[in-house]
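quick one, two chains, predict together pls
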Amino acid sequence: MSADEFDPAIERLFARSPALPDAALFTATVERRLQKGSRVRVFVLGVAGVVGGVVAAREMLTINFSTEGGSVPTAAMGQGLEAVSFNAQAAIQSGLDQVGLGNIAFGSMNGMQMFWIAAGALIAVAAAGVVRLSQEV
Amino acid sequence: MAQALVDRHDVELAAQAAAGGRREFGELVRRHGSAVRGLLRRMGAQPSLADDIAQDAFIQAFERCAEFRGEGTFAAWVKRIAARLYIKRAAKEARYVAEVETEETVSAPDPGGLMDLDEALKTLSEPERLCVSLCHGAGMAHPEIATALNLPLGTVKSHVKRGLDKLRARLQPAQTLGRTQHVG
């Protein structure tokens, strides 16, 4: 601003804020919008976390437990785990079918690759959630 | 706790808002909301449009609060965000803004506002009003205004100069009166 443009009186007039009668309403509206935005973000993060967790759990339970060549107790434990895995997998699969995610397939990747991808996504979502939570507190 | 918020400095509140503090940011909105809304009205926005843009500006400010380093005032920082949003909107909806301008010139002045300045601003042409408000209301430098409005720097300078000359002529009695009241 050049010297001839500087006018203290005009500067003062611009610096004065008009007293608006609905100032409190305006503040409340902005606060409501901030709150709403935060809720949407928390909801999206939550849903993503649940979906990612379920997919990760399903992939984890599809791991084949090898029982060949092991000792008797190991083989028994392996069979037990396999049975538990099968039951849990069936339960998760039916849950996924109900929400329309039962046929989710990720190309030609094997179970372990999918597991690590899903686990990575889950950790990222959890980290984002923790950061968000720390900001809330 | 509420008392503590009121006592805190803008920079401190902004730092807490940058860490997600919505209550602290609410206090900043309470302090500077009217100033931002007033600036947008002075730039030529209709009250409802000014309020919408001011809300968007505060939401954007909350999301970008970490960028505020306290070099200038918080109010000036939000005003610049709001001014840029208004310019963008005006460029996108040029026809709508032109209609609004016509409506506003015939509407009654806001009794709560600074009638002298606001009335005087209405006597300016739209570019003069915009340039003067951006320069003196939002604290933007001429080159910044030229970039924001996509106008040559010389044009911006002449708009500001002509606008100020008109304002001085229009506000002269009010300024004198204001000075007398301060002294008395």
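The interface with chain A takes residues 19-22, 25-26, 29-30, 32-35, 37-38, 41-42, 51, 54-55, 58-59, 62, 110, 112-114, 116-118, 133, 135-137, 141-142, 160-161, 164, 167-168, 171, 175, 178-179 of chain B (CB under 8 Å).
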